[in-house]
Design brief:
The complex is a heterodimer of chains A (342) and B (589). In chain A, 66% of the residues lie in helices and 1% in strands. Chain A is mainly α and 342 residues long. In chain A, helix 7 packs antiparallel against helix 12 (245-281). By secondary structure, chain B is an alpha+beta fold. Chain B has 18 helices and 19 strands. In chain B, the strands form 5 sheets. Chain B has a 6-stranded mixed beta sheet, sandwiched between helices. In chain B, strand 15 (420-426), helix 13 (430-444) and strand 16 form a beta-alpha-beta unit. The chains are: A mainly alpha (342), B alpha+beta (589). Chains A and B meet through helix 10, helix 12 and helix 14 of A and helix 1, helix 8, helix 10, helix 11 and helix 13 of B.
């Protein structure tokens, strides 16, 4: 295949307002691995930049930590907590339903205290809640990115009525009341679907719904980027050498889109975490007794005066996770975008 | 990059919001002390108004200030169905008979109100004759006649215009629904209902096709209040009912405020029930229940008109710092789980659920012994005739689950390793969800895997109220609560367990119990005019219901209700589901 020189496009970026102007560097990576021997590949350059960004590294560290926590939840809880669904009513004042111990019942036995009314271990529920949050956020992001990339690239490359139709569809999707739709959808979902049951159905529904409403954001960026790339010389060269449309899409355009897609996917995860928390808060999330941060926040409302810590802890968990992903995502964007402001 | 950065700002804002929420709520948690003293001075003591009168006083004057988070469904006496409306309605309506102004269980006794006595009943129980008192008048001074009462009752038939209220009188007086209601009445005086006769302005005669021992209870409902034909504004009547009681309407803005002033035409000598102490009565409606609790504690208002109990947020503060301002009465509600027989047909499997349930944990989930209520072991509330709170066929009063018996029952059921089922619970009731989680947890111990399905609480009658939906969705356990419309076994139990009350929509007999013996006992009890004898029959019914193992009662519900230090003559009335008897309240000591 042809290996377009990235210099050709570096100076004349026609990126529109909603596209990420960080594509120029990328073609080398896929196009000509041999060149990496003498110079540094754009990915290496990006990595060097990322390493210099302390905030981004801190974010990355927290993200890795959270992923490990989620992966090894049963192990961690086995060592430091109690099963997440186990009731500990001996820790609860039966008259008020609040923890007996001060600070929400925090002790060496219950690191983050106990849940009001039933005395479940807050630590274990936070750890297991991380699983739900990250799982839903990651899968939804993947779903949105795949759908957004495919449809965005088609719209941008083929143009004409295909572009018109897909762009309008994206506009409609962006205007759609996602929360209301999800709440309505979840209430009519059956308990068992395609071999999944209980929380499985809900998790699948959350992933599909959040991902489905997230793709137009990716789609618009990919479409804009594709529009600016499709008339480049290397694409024309490929066309004149007789390359098929599918080949051009896959081998000429897609590699140039990897960078903006990566950036967007990273920044999409924290949004998804918040959406999942909001849906759980509203009762449209996973089913009880499965732990989720949003659901914990919503339960905490009734006892926030007597037991504020029970509200603070899931709130902090959401806050820290979202912040970490944002810092990391910002760093990735800055690293991949040579013309960034910082 | 505009899109991306605006997106980022949104995320950052979201994260900030989460952080801000925590800061704000922590701040609230720390500031719970303010205004503590105002409410405290002169508080009558914990439970001072339960089964006895707190701050007895006959001094008139002042303004009684109600606050509430829920406006009435309808203030129109024929349309209101909310319990607090029935209590409040005594301010502006009178009935032939009404509940006695006494604390606790004594309140369920019926005494004469507009009538000179509680009626003369024919030997066959089919004819009730009442004579009206002298000096009973409307707010414009005109006398209340027997025709006004008949017209008021006839309005129940006009369900197309005046929906919402209880239709017991219609079912008892005109079971075939032949009368078309006063608005479609072709007779000149619009008094075409044959079952009620008004030979003169002072006499009213009811002729029942079938005897019903609770007929007087139905006449005590606000739905049996008189309405004067020339003042009937039909659907708009709810905005300004024409008063026959001690107070009349001054102003009303729905969901905002309601003000009543004295009706100077009301003659205290004609009324042995209503004390009419305050000069003014005001009701303020707010949407924020937590804020309402705080304003009550600060002494801005006297009591919560809805009387649904102090919210969980303020409960601890109220019980620890203002216990003297709190009453903790029983509401007459039972909170329970019910097992549809179409989904769990085997009685032993149902028994396994009952044995495995942890009553203590369920009680805690309901709010504990004070805010939740006492552990219940059978399906008849203690305030009703025939109730026996000690009857405990499944050993639930001890609080602990009986795993050995549960496993034994599972073996008999042929599922020694347990089974799978679904718990249906309303999604808008946090406490019920907590109860479902508790039940789920204790059932797990014997291998019963219950999945919790939260359904839209606003769609109750179409979801769990439909036996078909219940079967299709596989709801083996439904979590609900029930309170009686009138304080007898018929009012409480019949809709729940009489097989002839199974409906295709809006059903309340969720277990679909249809036992000819139970149904027959109801027929006997209905004919019985002696409440004590009827109580014996309801006791038998209750025992049979327990034997069928279709109900797992959680609690006899209790409420923590706020009583301001200003209030005088305060007592809870079983007849009004443990609310205070509003007609007796005053505010001057």
């Amino acid at each position: 295949m042809t290996a377009p020189l990235h210099e050709t496009s570096a100076g004349e970026s026609t990126a529109t307002a909603d596209t990420a102007p960080d594509a120029p560097g990328t073609p080398e990576n896929s196009g000509a691995p041999a060149k990496a021997i003498e110079g540094r590949s754009p990915w290496q350059i990006a990595w060097t930049r990322l390493k210099r960004d302390k905030l981004a590294l801190a974010g990355a560290f927290v993200v890795v930590f959270l992923v490990l926590v989620a992966l090894f939840a049963p192990l961690i809880v086995g060592l430091l907590g109690h099963p997440p669904d186990e009731f500990h009513e001996d820790q609860i004042d039966p008259l008020f339903g609040t923890p007996i111990g001060s600070w929400g019942g925090v002790s060496s036995d219950f690191l983050f205290g106990v849940e009001p009314v039933n005395g479940r271990d807050v630590f274990s529920r936070i750890v297991y809640g991380a699983r739900i949050s990250l799982l839903v956020a990651f899968l939804a992001a993947v779903f949105a990115v795949v759908l957004g990339t495919v449809l965005g690239i088609i719209a941008g490359y083929f143009g004409g009525w295909i572009d018109a139709v897909l762009s309008r569809v994206m506009d409609v999707m962006l205007a759609f009341p996602q929360l209301l739709f999800t709440i309505a959808l979840v209430s009519v979902l059956p308990n068992e679907l395609l071999g999944l049951d209980g929380s499985g159905v809900r998790i699948a529904a959350l992933v599909v719904v959040i991902g489905f409403f997230g793709w137009p954001y990716v789609g618009r960026i990919v479409r804009g980027q594709t529009l600016s790339l499709r008339n480049r010389e290397y694409v024309e060269a490929a066309q004149s050498l007789g390359a098929g449309r599918l080949y051009i899409l896959r081998r000429e355009l897609l590699p140039n889109l990897i960078a903006p897609i990566t950036v967007y996917a990273t920044l999409m995860i924290p949004t998804n975490i918040l959406t999942e928390a909001a849906l759980s808060f509203l009762g449209a999330g996973v089913k009880p007794p499965t732990a989720s941060w949003g659901q914990m926040l919503s339960t905490a409302i009734t006892t926030y005066e007597a037991d504020p810590l029970f509200m603070v802890i899931p709130g902090l968990a959401i806050f820290i996770t979202v912040l970490a992903f944002n810092l990391f995502g910002d760093g990735v964007r800055d690293a991949l975008d040579p013309k960034g402001s910082r | 990059m505009t899109l991306m950065s605006s997106q980022r700002r949104r995320i950052a804002a979201g994260a900030l919001l989460a952080a801000a929420t925590m800061v704000v709520t922590t701040a609230c948690g720390g500031g719970g002390e303010s205004g503590g003293d105002k409410g405290k001075g002169g508080a009558a003591g914990f439970n001072a108004g339960v089964n006895k009168v707190a701050n007895a006083s006959d001094k008139k004057g002042g303004e009684l200030k109600f606050i509430g988070s829920q406006d009435a469904d309808f203030w129109d006496p024929q349309r209101g169905y909310y319990g607090f409306v029935w209590d409040f309605a005594r301010y502006y309506t009178r009935q032939l008979v009404t509940f006695k102004a006494e604390p606790g269980a004594a309140s369920t006794e019926l005494v004469s109100d507009l009538a000179t006595d509680t009626g003369k009943v024919s030997a066959d129980g089919l004819t009730y004759t009442f004579t009206l008192k002298d000096g009973v008048t409307w707010e414009d001074g005109k006398p209340i006649t027997s025709k006004d009462i008949k017209y008021g009752i006839e309005r129940i038939w006009a369900q197309d215009v005046l929906s919402g209220g209880p239709i017991y009188l219609q079912q008892v007086l005109d079971p075939k629904n032949e009368y078309k209601g006063p608005y479609k009445d072709t007779s000149a005086d619009k008094l075409g209902l044959k079952a009620i006769e008004t030979p003169d302005d002072k006499t009213i005669v009811f002729k029942l096709p079938v005897a019903n021992g609770d007929f007087l209870q139905m006449l005590a409902m606000p739905a049996a209040s008189p309405v004067r034909q020339d003042k009937d504004t039909k659907a708009k009547y709810t905005l300004k009912p024409f008063s026959s009681g001690p107070y009349k309407w001054e102003s009303y803005t729905p969901n905002k405020s309601l003000k009543l002033v004295r009706n100077d035409k009301w003659d205290a000598k004609s009324d042995t029930v209503r004390k009419a102490l305050p000069d003014k009565i005001s009701v303020t409606f707010t949407t924020n229940a937590d804020d309402m609790d705080n304003r009550l504690v600060e002494g801005e208002y006297d009591l919560d008109i809805n009387a649904t109990g102090v919210g969980a947020a303020a409960r601890q503060k109220v019980l620890q710092q203002h216990k003297g301002n709190v009453d903790n009465p029983q509401t007459g509600f039972i909170r329970y789980a019910v097992f549809p027989q179409t989904v769990i047909p085997n009685i032993e499997c149902r028994k396994a659920i009952i044995y495995a349930a942890d009553s203590k944990s369920l009680q805690t989930a309901r709010g504990g012994p004070q805010a939740g209520g006492d552990i219940a072991s059978n399906m008849l509330p203690p305030a009703l005739k025939g109730a026996d709170a000690k009857a405990d066929p499944y050993g639930k009063l001890g609080g602990a689950p009986d795993l050995a018996k549960a496993k034994e029952a599972l073996k008999k059921c042929g599922k020694p390793d347990g089974f799978k089922t679904t718990i249906a619970v309303r999604n808008n009731k946090k406490i019920e969800i907590a109860t479902a989680e508790s039940l789920q947890q204790s059932l797990k111990a014997v291998g019963i895997e219950a999945q919790i399905d939260q359904f839209d609480g606003a769609q109750t009658s179409g979801i769990i109220g439909s036996p078909k939906v219940v079967k299709d969705k596989g709801y083996g356990i439904i979590i609900m609560g029930w309170g009686a419309d009138f304080p007898t076994g018929q009012g409480f139990l019949q809709p729940l367990v009489d097989g002839r009350f199974i409906l295709q929509s809006g059903n309340n007999n969720f277990s679909e119990l249809n036992d000819p013996a139970v149904n027959g006992l109801f027929d006997q009890a209905l004919k019985e005019t002696d409440p004590t004898k009827a109580g014996e029959l309801y006791k038998q019914i209750n025992t049979k219901v327990s034997e069928a193992a279709v109900y797992l009662p959680f609690t006899h519900e209790k409420n923590i209700i706020w009583r301001s230090s200003r209030l005088t003559n305060v007592y809870t009335a079983d007849a009004y589901n443990g609310r205070y008897d509003y007609a007796s309240l005053g505010v001057i000591k």
